[in-house]
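Researcher: Here's the sequence for the chain we discussed earlier.
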Amino acid sequence: MGWAFKAALLLGAALLGAVLYVLFLSVSKPGGSALERLAVGDMAALQVLDAPAPQTGHPFLDAAGRTRTLADFRGRVVLLNVWATNCPPCLGELPSLANLQRRYPETLRVIAVSIDGLPRRAQAEAEFARLTQGALGFYLDPAKSMAFAVGGEGLPVTVIYDAQGRERARLTGGAEWDGPDAFALFDALIAQGS
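Model: Thanks. This is the structure I predict for it:
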């Protein structure tokens, strides 16, 4: 073996080690809770609460016009998503939220609440149906205040509650909810509630 071959072999090994180290750092977060360690990749912007906060009691309407609250869905992990038709990131993530609901039909409830209000209900409902293909129920906040009720700093805002109705995490802005990073997060949350 010549010195050039040995040098190339050592350089290749060093590069491989560096790549593996970077990959390890990108998929693990030292310290923190199990949920914090899972807030990586597509879920990197997720803010995990140190102490779970209680669920909002803010009312909203279902598709039939009945008043609902998040307490109606206790016993399952709940993902509350507040969105509007004039918000491109909101519309962009609706298909992935529908896919997330399809993956966990018995243990997760995705509640996507439109804040478009009553005058724009028909448009919001049609756009929602097109993007979710019937996987999610339509909900509306005619007061347009759900984002404020959950302390949102913009749209979309997504708040994740455990099966006992305690807020565990939140994410402001669009995300991909149907990828392996999200699935790992929800697998852990659902397992905690079992």
